[in-house]
Each structure stands twice: as C-alpha cells, then as structure tokens.
C-alpha cells in the first residue's frame, strides 16, 4: 500500500548550529524554543548529534544537551542522532542514557554511529589508544545492549542507572555497512541522507532484505533524515537555503564558518566544482512552500517507502527556522 505523508511520523534533527554573530549559549536557547514548539506541532522526536572541533556545531556534549531539551519539554522523545560510540566506553554511555531515561521515562532514544564525528586529529585526541575503536563498533553495541539488559544484574560490572530500562537503540548510518549491522541485530535504522545520500537506496534495500526480527523490533523500520527549508513562497525558501549552501561549501573547501546569512545568489560565492560537490551531498534537500514540499516529499516517500522522516534545517534567522518547522508539520498533517 502506498504510504502517505499524513500517516507517518515526522521528527527533528537539531545540529545545534551556531550562527554568525551568536554563541553556543544562544544556540541552546533557540534549540529549547524549537523543541517546545515542535512538541506542540506534532513532531515525534527531537534528536541531537555528536560532533567535535566544528565551529558551527555546539552539541559536542550530546548527552548534556539531550537532558536540557528533555527537561524543558513534556512528551516529545529526545535522543541522539547520534552518539558516536567508538568515542566512548559502552558502560559510560549506558550510565549516561540510563540517567536520562530515569529522569525522563519512556522519552529517551539512543542512536549510535560508528564515525568519529570529527577530523582524524581530533578523533585521536578523543580516543587516544583506542583510535581504531570503530572496528569494535558491532561488539560495543552488543556490550551496550548487555549493560542495559535485566540479565546483567548478576554481572560483576553493571550500569547503574541503566540496567533494565527501556531505552530504544537505533543504528545510524551513511553507508551499507551500518545497514547490515542494523539488520543483523534487528534494530531500527536511521540513515544520514541529509549529507550522505549516495548509498541511501542501496543501504535501505540491504537492511530490508537482511532484517532479522528481534525482541526489539519485529519488522524493518527506516528513518530518513533530510534537509528541509520551508517558507510561505518558493522564492523565499530558496533564498533562505543559501545559508545551507554556504555551510556545505565550507565542508567541501575545508574552510568552515559559523552559519552565514542568506544571500540573493550563490553565483559569486561558490565555484562550479564546489556547487557540484555540495549538490551531491545535498541530493536529499527539500526547499519551498507547503505545496512544493508536499509534492516533493510525497515523491521521496513513494520512492523510498521509509517509515519516518526527520528534518534538519540550517536557517540563519531563528524565527524563519521556527516557521519552516511549523509549515513542515502542517505538510505532514494536512492534505494540501
């Protein structure tokens, strides 16, 4: 049966973007404001991502920010999209999320990623002698599951709090490797199509074909994260999206900046090569009015048949970003 936007959950990925002229403190205040409104607009989840040594991303202490958002909201699920598990001991993450789940019962999600969430030099500073810990990712996920299980109560090493708590674990991915792991463990799968769309369709097909039901999940469940810039008109949305384009130009060139204000045209800002490279990463980007978004997102849903869509929105002005999420929520709830 063909899926309809109005019948699937929709969620927020907040990359805790620091904008030009503002500070991380401003970012956190705006994040809480957005989360409180998103809760009222019908969003299902509000996830934050672990990044390090990035001038424009403030969520390096991801668990701390999750607690701040969960503490300022009432019912929306709050979690990680994701925690980069090779940067941490599985026991410490079990304790951190066990603490969060004890404070905010039945509201905490734990999305786990394999990448460092940073450059190699910073990864070395974080991991030290465990620099190659990404190779242990599958085993570390199993360790984390063990620490959170009731069966671990007889172990000599226990996660207190954490043990026996209902904390859904998600596998995050931007490649086919993560799809195979999520399928083998019978866990929900969240794909980073907002910046790494190249292997998206292959990965979700592999996940579906190889999925093994588990005590956690009986059938495959796929969440796709996409970029969304919504406004009252296509013209206005396209201008707002130039902040996103400038951000990705910085990724392509390695010259990262705080999120820049929108411009009338990108022609004098990026080269054809930079535009092409950024465009490849931004293939899953949806920009426009409610009518345009409804059409384009429904086509995306028809093509992918995902179970949930999560939106991240790099918009310079806070009120414009709030309006974007409000309009997107209406797209999912209305027949436009």
From TrEMBL:
Any Pfam family matching the protein: Bac_luciferase
Cited NCBIfam families: oxido_grp_1 (TIGR03558)
InterPro entries the record matches: Bact_Lucif_Oxidored, CmoO-like, Luciferase-like_dom, Luciferase-like_sf
Positions in coiled-coil regions: none
Name of the molecule in the record: Luciferase-like monooxygenase
Limits of the Luciferase-like domain: 11-246
Membership in a protein family: To bacterial alkanal monooxygenase alpha and beta chains.
GO CC terms: cytosol
Record GO terms (molecular function): oxidoreductase activity, acting on paired donors, with incorporation or reduction of molecular oxygen
